[in-house]
Design a protein that fits this description.
The structure holds three protein chains of three kinds. Chain A has four domains: 2-221, Rossmann fold (3-Layer(aba) Sandwich), CATH 3.40.50.300; 224-300, Alpha-Beta Plaits, CATH 3.30.70; 302-361 and 368-373 and 470-544, Rossmann fold (3-Layer(aba) Sandwich); 392-466, no CATH class. Chain A has 20 helices and 22 strands. By secondary structure, chain A is α/β, with parallel strands linked by helices. In chain A, a hairpin with a 2-residue loop joins strand 11 (250-256) and strand 12. In chain B, helix 3 links the parallel strand 1 (49-55) and strand 2. Chain B has a four-stranded mixed beta sheet, sandwiched between helices. In chain B, 67% of the residues lie in helices and 9% in strands. Chain B has helices at residues 3-18, 21-41, 60-70, 84-92, 106-111, 127-143, 163-194, 196-201, 207-235, 245-269, 273-290, 302-308, 312-325, 330-359, and strands at 49-55, 75-80, 98-102, 116-123, 151-156. Chain C contains 14 helices and five strands. Chain C is α/β, with parallel strands linked by helices. In chain C, 55% of the residues are buried. In chain C, strand 1 (49-55), helix 3 and strand 2 form a beta-alpha-beta unit. Chain C folds into two domains: 3-42 and 165-358, no CATH class; 49-145, abc type-2 transporter like fold, CATH 3.40.1710.10. The interface between B and C is large, with 105 and 103 residues. Chain A: It comes from Marinobacter koreensis.
């Protein structure tokens, strides 16, 4: 049965054409992924299905209704969870649920049973009295979902529900959604995250306002059969990746622990890579197919890193000893100790509220430890003068840029704040513009730019003073896989020059890029090892995500 | 302190203020519009008042008195009434500011050289206007039948009591204060909400540099707007200027710095932009009210008079009014400058300390 | 319209209101501060004006006139012998004026010439007027007591406010300012906040109708406004000694009628500005400042130039302040109140029509 039918739907905002003729069908009782890179038009389409935007031309029918003329009836049969939850942060969990129950006209007699079911379903039962603003990101998502589900709609629209959610909470979300499709509901899940897309029953793959593929994800993935390989070379993995990506017959390549995952061009055999190391054939993933469909991954060469000089040897780049931070009774970071070696990427991984951010902030001097110490370049940042801060580059979550300044002005500002002047300042700025291809949009405001461009600009600002140590806080949150690859190309290039990197992340494939991963849970580091060793602990052939969940559950059971 | 770091931040602050044409308009146009409207609206003069006259006397002296009253400059509209009830209703319904009741024996008393009583009922709801109108009436009554007035009146500095000579210079102070507050209140809280503040804190720049960089553009903005309004007072409203422009300019700078200090304090303490907006608002209203703009500071209870000394506007109003009309001597200016300097010092160091505390 | 959805929205809004410290600040703390300031700090009552009396002769008559100046509660007199002693004090603002009693005072008195000179500080015109008026009164009384002139004796009575205390008209006026803040500023901010936080998008996707959303916002703030009026009135009566001559019911009625345009204006602002900063600025410029300056609260509307007088007709606070003065100081003067109520409701209707037209159930801009 068809839940949603789209027929040549167009939509433009000013000069930007967000949707350029979308036609397709979405079936009831199935989980359909709406997949595509940033700016593909996913949110526009989903808002249209919710009746919040009108198409410029073309028609769509949702649950048999026309959203333009039957908006009121539509609202009864559609559940919608916007990207930003739509929760009232100063209302409690129970109050939020009750509000949406009243608004959606749930019969009063059904209240207790429905709430009980939803609270049980979301495992939010123990938190009914807590204010929504005090929930973790994952709990907010689940509550948002519960609010959209109050009256069992025919169609459930979820706009990027997986952003900012750790794997444990994400697993809960999947469980909930799969139970719903079993009841005949059509669930649309928009995402830029391809591991999520792969688990959907159908996908609509969008890019640049056009529909590029519809069908089961497996169908797309199968096209890549025999083109995916895993390569283990004698050389350093990052250098090897660079070599692989430089080849003409390679479509895409990423780091997976110690090895490189490679997608070859059509008709090229994996044996072509034999000269580089041991090659084994692997099953294709949806992400491989996605990148392939969109024209292949970006190259592996970072012009930015080329311009950087080698970092001189640095003793004890980043370390912390018995680092602890309390907020009242709550211990956010509990006796954490580790060292990062020069030229190493260390990832801080953990569920929402595990203490990653707190630890990270103490390391870069934004927060004072309750006890213990954190050192950067052998210096305590709290007491060390500006000189120590010159050794540190920092890229904040959400790419903190000055939205009121143009791209060029942002660059000039950061160059100035790090004390550069005269010709040197101009050279560095030009270096960044060339190295990160910022040229064409220098006079635009950052707010007008795509997420990927903002991310490059934020990186440029953080690197202006050529710091030997780089702190990245969730650097690719919400960013699509192609942009993420570009970003890591630059980071890999920098690490090759001897830069030390500390990164926090939710993304498991990002964890694969790290040399070592510190897994945090409830304020403590519960595991610190290479990605391969961590995966091995969860069993043969486990993915990073499985390893993550395994280690957390192991800890909880103990 | 590092010059290029500071310069970079100052440029950043200026650009964030002025790069966007709409933001520029929101910042610059309303104060100028307000200066124009409020210069005319904010007046405690009495003009166009409605006066009711209940004259029971037909004699010549009564008619002369009524004629003098109705032609007085503060009267705009005269209602002749013929009984007491009508007269009372006009006051009760707020339709007349005052009524004049001339009894039938008025002319007889006047001609006999005896004191002649006239009853005046004033609307106490409009206490100020009623009192002013009464004093005008008294002047008219005193002149009746006299060739020479027993009292020679001279208003020093402003002979015709032109209200705008008082309001326009004062408004230049009030409005430039509001601009400086609005600019600074958001400066730290916005960066904190957007996350760029963390980015600043991990850079080698110091809290003092951050505060100075946020201070200078706001001071510049406040000073330019204040100067524009003072120029408007001089050229457009033709308010005479008798003091020293140099002293006034210096006082304006110091005044704006002290206001900026207050704004930055609020901004540094606030967690969100909304808190900063409401915080500044909750401070600005009492500051204007207690500054002596609406009513003289001496009229307030001692405790409030003492508090008023901590308000920059109180001191600046004395200086700006004095500079325009009173050729205020330098020593009086200085006696109001050091409190400004003290306020600036306290608030700016306070803001720096709050930022530093965030860092550690 | 479904009452059930409406009640749910009202309950939500009320809970948010109670839990938001900035709403409490604006609705309860700031009103107390404002009332206090208007009762004690902003006083147009001129008492104890500093006046110099320059006595240039020792004649008994001149001294008795000087004594008359010292005797009145309007002035606090600084005696002097020479003009040079007082002029610098006039410049520094320590004196608001001075009286010059000339050496040939007796001579002038005998010949019926002008007797004294009064010089005021014209930089503050209002105060200058008071100095002139009071000085004139002292002189007239002194002359009449001696039978030297037979003046017209103005027997002045200030109705509704016999002691002519400005507090009695400023405090009721301040209630209008407070209600403007709650009605316009808070409402504009809370709607803008729903847009900023993304909750509006979720709300719009439910079966809720636009009038329900608007009413759900309004009714709680309507209630808050009335509660603030009640609180302010209790303070005004019991702490600041302002009489309430009309009925409580009338007071609540005019307050309720004023909240209609005030809330409507808040909604219009928030429908046009979906960001808190712009909403706050707009509420200040279009709500708070006109209520303060163009409403007849401090400054006489009659004395303003014609174009500005015209402008005051669309300021709802103008009508509210007039009604409040009447209810507090005069009583229930229905002809006046009905006129004001109709004006406020008319402005309110226009505001709501604009708000309704500008709020759409979609994200289209």
């Amino acid at each position: 049965m068809t839940a949603i039918a789209l027929d040549d739907v167009h939509k433009a905002f000013g000069k930007t054409r967000a949707l350029k003729g979308i036609s397709g069908e979405i079936a009831a009782g199935r989980l359909t992924g709406l997949v595509g890179p940033d700016g593909a038009g996913k949110t526009t389409l989903i808002r249209m299905m919710a009746g919040l935007l009108k198409p410029d031309s073309g028609t769509l029918r949702v649950a048999g209704l026309d959203p333009v003329h039957q908006g009121m009836a539509l609202a009864e049969s559609v559940g919608y969870m916007p990207q930003r939850f739509g929760l009232y942060e100063d209302l409690s969990v129970q109050e939020n649920l009750k509000l949406y129950a009243e608004l959606r006209g749930l019969p009063r007699d059904d209240y207790d049973a429905t709430f009980e079911k939803l609270l049980d379903f979301t495992r939010l039962g123990p938190f009914t009295k807590r204010l929504a603003g005090q929930l973790s990101g994952g709990m907010k998502q689940k509550l948002g979902l519960a609010c959209a589900l109050i009256t069992s709609p025919e169609v459930l629209l979820l706009d990027e529900p997986g952003v900012g959610v750790d794997p444990v909470s994400r697993q809960d979300l999947w469980r909930m959604v799969q139970a719903l499709t079993g009841e005949g509901m059509a669930v649309i899940w928009a995402t830029a995250y391809l591991e999520e897309a792969e688990r959907c029953e159908d996908v609509l793959l969008m890019s640049d306002g056009l529909l590029r593929f519809t069908g089961e994800p497996g169908e797309l993935t199968r096209r890549l059969q025999g083109r995916c390989f895993r390569l283990k070379g004698p050389h350093e993995k990052r250098a090897l990746l660079g070599e692989v990506l430089a080849r003409d017959d390679v479509r895409d390549g990423t780091i997976e622990g110690d090895r490189i995952r490679v997608v070859m061009d059509e008709g090229v055999d994996g044996e072509a890579l034999a000269s580089l190391g041991d090659v084994e054939s692997v099953a294709p993933r949806f992400e491989d197919a996605f990148i392939d469909l969109l024209g292949g991954g970006p190259g592996g060469h970072s012009p930015l890193a080329d311009q950087m000089p080698d970092v001189p040897e640095l003793k004890d780049p980043v370390s912390c000893h018995h680092l602890t931070r309390r907020f009242g009774e709550f211990v956010a970071t509990d006796d954490v100790s580790f060292n990062v070696r020069q030229g190493e990427i260390l990832g801080l991984l953990g569920p929402n509220g595990a203490g990653k951010s707190t630890t990270f902030k103490m390391l870069c001097g934004l927060l004072k430890p309750s006890s213990g110490e954190a050192r950067v370049a052998g210096l305590d940042l709290r007491s060390a003068a500006s000189d120590a801060k010159l050794k540190l580059g920092y890229m904040a979550q959400k790419f903190s840029l000055y939205g009121l300044l143009s791209v060029r002005q942002n660059l000039t500002f950061y160059a100035g704040v790090y004390g550069l002047r005269g010709g040197e300042k101009q050279n560095r700025i030009n270096e960044m513009i060339d190295g990160l291809q910022l040229g064409p949009l220098l006079d635009n405001a950052p707010d007008e730019l795509s997420l990927g461009f903002k991310q490059r600009l934020a990186l440029a600002c953080a690197l202006m003073h050529r710091p030997p140590i780089l702190f990245l806080d969730e650097p690719t949150s919400g960013v699509d896989p192609i942009t993420r690859r570009e970003f890591w190309t630059h980071i890999n290039g920098l690490v090759g020059k001897g830069v030390t990197v500390l990164v926090t992340t939710h993304f498991m494939d990002e964890a694969e890029y790290c040399d070592r991963v510190a897994l945090m849970h409830r304020g403590r580091v519960i595991a610190l090892d290479t990605p391969d060793n961590l995966k091995a602990r969860a069993g043969q052939g486990a993915s990073m995500e499985q390893a993550f969940i395994h280690l957390i559950e192991e800890q909880d059971d103990a | 302190m590092n010059g290029s770091r500071l310069l970079a931040q100052i440029i950043k602050e200026l650009l964030s203020l002025l790069r966007d044409p709409r933001a520029r308009a929101i910042l610059i146009l309303p104060p100028l519009l307000q200066l124009m409207i409020f210069s005319f609206a904010a007046t405690l003069e009495v003009r166009n008042a409605t006066v009711a006259v209940f004259n029971e006397d037909i004699g010549q002296p009564a008619r002369e008195f009524v004629a003098d009253v109705t032609s007085a400059s503060f009267v705009g509209h005269v209602i002749m009434v013929h009984n007491r009830q009508q007269q009372d209703e006009l006051i009760e319904q707020g339709r007349a500011l005052l009524t004049l009741h001339i009894p039938e024996d008025f002319s007889r008393h006047r001609l006999a050289g005896q004191p002649a009583p006239v009853q005046v009922i004033l609307d106490g709801q409009q206490a100020n206007a009623a009192q002013v109108a009464l004093s005008y009436l008294q002047a008219i009554a005193m002149e009746q039948g006299n060739r020479t007035e027993p009292m020679v009146l001279r208003h020093a500095f402003n002979p015709n009591l032109i209200y705008q000579w008082y309001v326009v210079p004062s408004l230049s102070g009030i409005l430039s204060m509001l601009i400086a507050l609005a600019v600074t209140a958001l400066s730290i809280s916005r960066e904190r909400e957007l996350g760029t503040f963390d980015q600043l804190l991990v850079s080698p720049t110091t809290p003092l540099e951050i505060i100075l960089a946020k201070c200078l553009p706001a001071v510049l903005m406040g000073f330019v707007m204040g100067s524009v309004m003072i120029t408007a007072a001089l050229l457009l409203f033709q308010v005479p200027f008798t003091g020293s422009l140099l002293w006034l300019a210096g006082a304006l700078v110091l005044f704006i710095i002290s206001v900026v200090g207050i704004g930055l304090m609020v901004s540094a303490v606030s967690e969100t932009q909304q808190q900063a907006i409401l915080g500044v608002f909750a401070l600005a209203v009492p500051m204007v009210l207690m500054s002596g703009f609406a009513t003289p500071v001496e009229n307030m209870p001692d405790l409030l008079q003492w508090m008023a000394q901590a308000i920059p506007l109180t001191h600046f109003l004395v200086i700006v009014q004095g500079s325009f009309l009173k050729s205020i001597p330098a020593d009086v200016v200085v006696s109001h400058l050091w409190p400004l300097a003290l306020i600036a010092l306290v608030t700016l160091s306070g803001a720096t300390l709050v930022v530093r505390k965030r860092l550690h | 319209m479904r009452s059930r959805r409406l009640f749910a929205l009202i309950k939500k809004e009320s809970l948010q209101m109670i839990r938001d410290p900035s709403a409490i600040l604006i609705a309860f703390v700031l009103p107390v501060v404002l009332l206090f300031l208007f009762a004690y700090a902003v006083s147009l009552d001129i008492r104890q004006l500093h006046l110099g009396v320059v006595l240039q002769t020792d004649s008994a008559k001149a001294q008795s006139l000087a004594a008359e100046f010292s005797g009145t509660s309007y002035f606090q007199v600084l005696p002097a012998r020479h003009r040079d002693e007082v002029t610098p004090l006039l410049v520094s603002g320590e004196l608001k004026g001075y009286v010059l009693i000339p050496p040939d005072f007796d001579h002038r008195l005998a010949r019926g010439e002008s007797l004294i000179q009064v010089v005021t500080d014209g930089t503050q015109p209002n105060t200058a007027n008071f100095v002139a008026g009071y000085a004139r009164g002292v002189l007239v009384d002194w002359l009449a007591d001696r039978g030297l002139r037979s003046p017209i004796k103005l027997d002045a009575r200030f109705w509704f406010n016999p002691e002519v205390e400005t507090r009695k008209f400023l405090v009721p006026g301040a209630i209008a300012i407070i209600m403007t803040m709650i009605g316009t500023l808070l409402t504009a901010l809370v709607v803008a906040r729903e847009w900023e936080r993304g909750t509006m998008e979720a709300l719009l996707s439910t079966p809720v109708r636009i009038p329900e959303i608007l009413l759900g916002k309004l009714l709680p703030y309507f209630g808050l406004g009335l509660i603030a009026t009640l609180g302010s009135t209790l303070l005004a009566i019991h702490i600041f000694d302002v009489p309430l001559r009309g009925g409580w019911g009338t007071l609540l009625l005019v307050s309720a009628c004023f909240l209609v345009p005030a809330l409507g204006q808040g909604l219009v602002i928030s429908a046009l500005a979906k960001n808190q900063f712009i909403a706050a600025q707009a509420a200040l410029f279009s709500g708070f400042l006109p209520a303060f300056l163009l409403s007849g609260f401090l400054f006489e509307i009659d004395a303003m130039p014609a174009p500005i007088r015209l402008l005051t007709h669309i300021v709802p606070a103008r009508y509210f302040i007039e009604s409040l003065h009447s209810v507090f100081l005069v009583g229930d003067v229905w002809p006046l109140l009905i006129k004001d109520i109709l004006a406020m409701l008319a402005i309110g209707a226009v505001m709501f029509a604009i708000a309704r037209a500008k709020t759409r159930k979609s994200l289209e801009s």
